Amino acid sequence: MTSARITSVAAPSATWKRAASIFAAGVGSPFFTTDSGAALRAIEIGADLLLKATKVDGVYDKDPNKYSDAVRFDSLTYDEVIRRGLEVMDTAAFALARDSDLPLRVFDMGQPGELLKILHGDNIGTLVQGRDNA
């Protein structure tokens, strides 16, 4: 799906019909990362979930590639991520998703079949959603 008219490559975003949608590349605007573009497009189409494919299998308390004692979270609130100073995605993208109440699932893009498992409802990676009760 694309917002630009390149129909030989992808259907225009206006033709979206409540299915699984995969967006590739950015939005073509300076200072807008691919994470921010993904959050923006997910919000625009009313997505139920934003998927963040990474090189690790979720959100950890510290870099699991550097620290063998790193602990992975199954779920977190957006406020917990901020309070703990966890690096999930760029700040603008994170704020867009949080402020739009868009759940975010972080998973390992290198594991075969993980995306399909998520689409079938399996609890893969880390789910970030909601706010702390104040």
Features:
alpha/beta; Carbamate kinase; 134 residues; 25% helix; 4-stranded mixed beta sheet; 14% strand; single chain
Give me the secondary-structure category. Answer: alpha/beta
Shape: globular
What do we call the CATH homologous superfamily of the domain at 49-134? Answer: Acetylglutamate kinase-like
* Proportion of residues in β-strands: 5-15%
Number of helices: 4
- Tell me what the CATH architecture of the domain at 49-134 is: 3-Layer(aba) Sandwich
Through-space gap between termini: 39 Å
CATH topology of the domain at 49-134, which one?
A: Carbamate kinase
Helix content: 25-40%
Question: Regarding quaternary structure, how should these chains be classified?
Answer: single chain
Cα-atom radius of gyration = 15 Å
Q: Could you walk me through the main structural features you see in this protein, from its secondary elements to its overall organization?
A:
α1 (34-45) runs parallel beside α3. The termini are far apart. It contains four helices and six strands, in the order αββββααβαβ. The mean pLDDT is 86. It has helices at 34-45, 78-84, 91-99, 114-119, and strands at 50-54, 59-60, 72-73, 75-76, 104-108, 126-128. The longest helix has 12 residues, at 34-45. It has a domain at 49-134: Carbamate kinase, CATH 3.40.1160.10. Helix content is 25%, strand content 14%.
What is this structure, in a nutshell?
Helix 1 packs parallel to helix 3 (91-99).
